[in-house]
Amino acid sequence: MNKLSLIFLIPLLSFGQSQLNSFYIGDPLPDAPKLSARGNFKVGVKTIKVVNPHQIDILSSSKEKTVLYDRSLTLEIWYPASLENDEKEEVVYDQVMGDFTVPMRPIIPFKFKGRASRDASTDSSKGPYPLVIVSHGYPGSRLMLSYLTENLASKGYVVVSIDHTDSTFQDATNIISTFLNRSLDDLFVLNEIARLSTDSSSFLMGLVNFDNSGLIGYSMGGFGAINIAGGGYSDQAVKLFTAFSNGNNALEKRKMGNPDYINSFDNRFKAVVAMAPWGMENGIWDAEGLKEVKIPTFFVAGSKDDISGYEKGVKAIYDGAVNAERYLLTYVNARHNIAPNPPTTEVMAPGLHIDEYLRYADSVWDQRRINNINQHFITAFLGVKLKKNTDYLPYLDAKGFDKQDPWEGFLPRTSVGLEFRMDSPAQ
Predict the structure, then answer these.
(1) Which of 90, 161, 216, 330 is the most exposed place for a label (fewest CB within 10 A)?
(2) Contact between 400 and 416 (Cβ < 8 Å)
(3) What band does 400 get if pLDDT is binned at 50, 70 and 90?
(4) Pair 214, 269: CB distance under 8 Å
(5) Is the peptide bond before 406 cis (omega within 30 degrees of 0)?
(6) For the chain, which residues make up each domain, given as ranges?
(7) Chain segment 134-174, per-residue pLDDT in tens
C-alpha cells in the first residue's frame, strides 16, 4: 500500500471507530425505515418499586391450601422530559445475563448506554401522554427492549417496563409463577400507574392518559398480552398448570368463560403488540378462546421461531383471532429473538454460552436492523390506535415479500426478507 492510500485510509478508519463508539442501542442504521427515528421529546427515566398486596403465592400453595403474599415489582419508566442546559440525554443501564439455576451459565453483570436522562424533570407541555406497558420474556428483564421504550417516550408516550418477579435473570424460578402472574401483573401495573398519575406526590401526577393504554409483550410477555386482549386460557392450559402446581387451579380465573376473567377485562387497553407470543403449540388457547380477542393487535414473529413456533404458533394465534383488527409482521428465517436489544460487547465475549448470546441476537438477521423495523411499525400502529393519528395509516399498508417498489417509509430494496399481513375483524 502506498503513502497516498494510507493518507485516505487513516481518516476513514478513525471515522469508522468514532461512529462505532457513538452508536447507541436503538439508533437508526442507514437503511432504517422512516418511523424508526426518535421523536421530538427529550427522554427521562426513573426506577420505582410497587407492591401488589394479597396475591397468590403459587410456589408455596397446593390443592389443600392457598398462600397469599405481597408481590413486589420493579418498574422502569421512560417519559417525555425537560432537561436543563447541562443535563445530558444519556444513561448507563445495569443489566445481567445468565441463569442462576445453571452452574455453567453464571450471572454476569454488564452495562450499556442509552439515550435518556436519569431522574430528569418531566415535560408535561403536551400531556397527558398515552401509557404503554412492556412485559419481557422468561427469563428476561425490564431493560431488554430499551431501544423501543426510549424511542416511544421520545414520541410522547409514558412507557412502563416491568421486572416480573420470579421471571427475571436473577430470580427466574418455576414457570408456573409466570403462567399465573403475567396478565395479573399487567393489570395491576395499569391500575398502579393510574393511581400514581393522580397522586400529587408522584412525578407521574397529571402526566399519563391511563384511559388510553397499550401493552407490548414479548414471548411469555406475549402470552400474558393475548390473555389481556381477550384470549382466555383453554381447559388444557388450566390442567397443565394444575398438574405442575401441586393441584392448585389458580389459573382457572384467567380461563375462557370464567366470570372472574370476563369481569377483569379492562377497556383502557386500546392496543396490544404481541411479539413472538408463547403458548399456542402447547394448547394454551383454543379456537373459541381466540375468537374473544377483540383489541387491535400487532403480531411480530420469526418464521423459524423454535420456541413459540410459527405456523402452529404465532401465525396460528393471528389466524384464530378472527374478531380483532390484526397485523402480522414476519422476519423470514428469523428465530425467536425478534424483540430484544442487540448484543453488547460483553454479550459477544468469546466463550459465552450460545444460549446467552442468542437472547440478544439472531443468527440470520442483524438485531439492530430488527430493532429499527420494530420501532417503525410499532410507532405507526400505536400512533393510529393511541394517538388517533391517521397520518400513520399508509405505513400499515405494506404487503408482499421483497417488493420491487418500497413500502411506505422504506428505502428502495430494503423491505427484503419481510412479510406483512393485515386482516379486519370478521364481525
Answers:
(1) 90
(2) no
(3) low
(4) yes
(5) no
(6) 33-423
(7) 999 999 999 999 999 999 999 999 999 999 999 999 898 89
Of the candidates 354, 386, 177, 357, which has an alpha carbon nearest to the alpha carbon of residue 271? 386
Judged by DSSP in three states, 70 sits in strand
Query: Angle at Cα 90 formed by Cα 87 and Cα 96, nearest 5°?
Result: 140
Tell me 29's DSSP state: P
Are 224 and 242 a contacting pair, CB within 8 Å?
A: no
Alpha helices in 229-296 (DSSP H): 235-243, 259-264, 287-290
420 with 412: CB under 8 angstroms?
Answer: no
Evaluate if pTM is beyond 0.90: yes
Give residues with Cβ within 8 angstroms of 134, minimum separation 6: 142, 145, 148, 149, 159, 160, 161, 162, 215, 216, 217, 221
Question: Which triple of cell numbers denotes residue 136?
Answer: 419481557
Tell me: the pLDDT tens digits for 51-96? Answer: 999 999 999 999 999 999 999 999 999 999 999 887 899 999 999 8
Q: How far is CA 301 from CA 196, 239, 288, in A?
A: 34, 27, 23
**Dist. CA 402–CA 153, nearest whole Å:** 31
338 vs 366: CA distance, rounded Å: 10
Closest residue by Cα to residue 307 from 328, 280, 330, 336: 336
Confidence band, pLDDT 50/70/90 cuts, at residue 399: low
Q: Tell me which fold the domain 33-423 belongs to.
A: Rossmann fold (3.40.50)
Q: CA-CA distance, 427 to 425, in Å (whole number)?
A: 6
Contact 150, 43 (CB under 8 A): yes
DSSP conformation class of 233: B
The grid coordinates listed for 348 are: 459477544
Please give the sequence-ordered ranges of beta strands (E in DSSP) within 244-284, or none if there are none. Answer: 269-275
